[in-house]
Write a structure and sequence with these properties.
Structural class of chain A: alpha+beta
Keywords (chains A, B): DNA-binding, Iron, Metal-binding, Repressor, Transcription, Transcription regulation, Zinc
InterPro entries (chains A, B): FUR (IPR002481), Fur_C (IPR043135), WH-like_DNA-bd_sf (IPR036388), WH_DNA-bd_sf (IPR036390)
CATH class of the largest domain in chain A: Mainly Alpha
Family (chains A, B): Belongs to the Fur family.
Cofactor (chains A, B): Zn(2+); Mn(2+); Fe(2+)
CATH superfamily of the largest domain in chain A: Winged helix-like DNA-binding domain superfamily/Winged helix DNA-binding domain
Radius of gyration of chain A: 18 Å
Largest sheet of chain A: 3 strands, antiparallel
Pfam families (chains A, B): FUR
Shape of chain A: globular
Largest interface: A-B, 33 and 33 residues
Number of strands of chain A: 6
Oligomer: homodimer
Chain lengths: 153, 153
DNA sequence: TCTTACTTTATAATCATTATCAATTGATAA
DNA sequence: TTATCAATTGATAATGATTATAAAGTAAGA
């Protein structure tokens, strides 16, 4: 069976890049933390556990490379840090995010909710859409539940 | 007639802040460049023309303050800079953006296209939406027109 | 083995933003 | 007006993320 890493290796080769040990270690960390939204620093600290000799600059370069190849997406939630998010295999568009203003959690919506909206934008604004970023800011289900359980004061 | 500046002055006073000359100069620049998406540095350079003694830190502080009061929105298009965008008066939500990958232009969609989508998200993910960010990346109408006029090679 | 291009590491440099602190200003009461 | 006190400002230092640089390492082909 072909693993996810194998397929990423092929994508690199197709663009004439090698899957060096450092790059592989970085990709493994991303795969192991698919749910999270890691900053370059986060990735660096995690990669150091499995490849202690790696340098921070290499992590940055690798993440940049993976972004170029659309294997990961680089996002920015407004704190001063870029975060890196593995794209679903075969996904044409970037998934959406729910950022909780109370607890800071970031949840993902894999489903594409923008089909209709994109149709409108393409037609009405004569804009040829290549990708999108959609983030909702608000109160997540966890915090919602918690506050509805609170006794009224 | 009450001007836009007057109303902003009231908003500041309501939160017990003053409209100092520096703040006023900064707001004027934002009003004069409503269509643009200025970085703090951009604003600083423009403000210096009408208030030469102003400091960069004051501009940052003012933009931060205006963001807190929801008079402007702070956005980030992925280059390393925050940009500041006047909110439409009375708008509950932030407007959408079209970023052209070819010429870099940033156009605005004032209309709220997310009504239905937000309904779905609130119900299905039990997420209480406070605000949103929606940006499309693609080719703008100007570049579309230009390339359709190009002779096929 | 030799060559060449690619990659990495460590570190310095850059750039946006934030913190600090003394000086200034504005509003208010005496 | 003057005294007072908190808010605000400007200059500058500090921070923190990211990028550039240069020397050394690595892999693959001739």
């Amino acid at each position: 069976m072909e693993t996810r890493i194998d397929r990423i290796k092929k994508q690199l080769h197709a663009a004439s890049y090698k899957l060096t040990p450092q790059r592989e270690a970085t990709v493994r960390i991303l795969l192991d933390h698919e749910e999270d939204h890691l900053s370059a620093e986060d990735v660096y600290l995690l990669v150091k556990d499995i490849a202690p000799e790696i340098g921070l600059a290499t992590v940055y370069r690798t993440l940049e490379l993976l972004t170029e190849l659309k294997i990961v997406d680089k996002i920015n939630f407004g704190d001063g840090v870029s975060r890196y998010d593995l794209r679903q295999e075969g996904a044409a568009h970037f998934h959406h995010h729910l950022v909780c203003l109370e607890c800071g959690a970031v949840d993902e919506i894999q489903e594409d909710l923008l089909g209709d909206v994109e149709g409108v934008v393409e037609k009405r604004w004569n804009f040829q859409i290549k990708d999108h970023r959609l983030t909702f800011h608000g109160i997540c289900w966890r915090c919602n539940d918690r506050s509805s359980q609170d006794p009224p004061q």
